[in-house]
Amino acid sequence: MSNPTGDISDAQFLTVAEVAAMMRVSKMTVYRLVHSGELPAVRVGRSFRVRETDANEYLRKSFYDAG
What we know:
Layout: E1 13-15, H1 16-23, H2 27-36, E2 42-44, E3 47-51, H3 52-62
Antiparallel strand pairs: 1-3, 2-3
């Protein structure tokens, strides 16, 4: 977490569609990641929002050396 105080008032939130576009995957893949707990999200009404830092952290942790 980039903000150790826990204050998320200045956090940037992305929609599932924005996360899917950023990761170049389908929205269903993002929903699966959210529901499995691999990608933290908050529910707002009937939709989900993902902190930009959480999406970036998930991508950073997902890299592996293929060679």
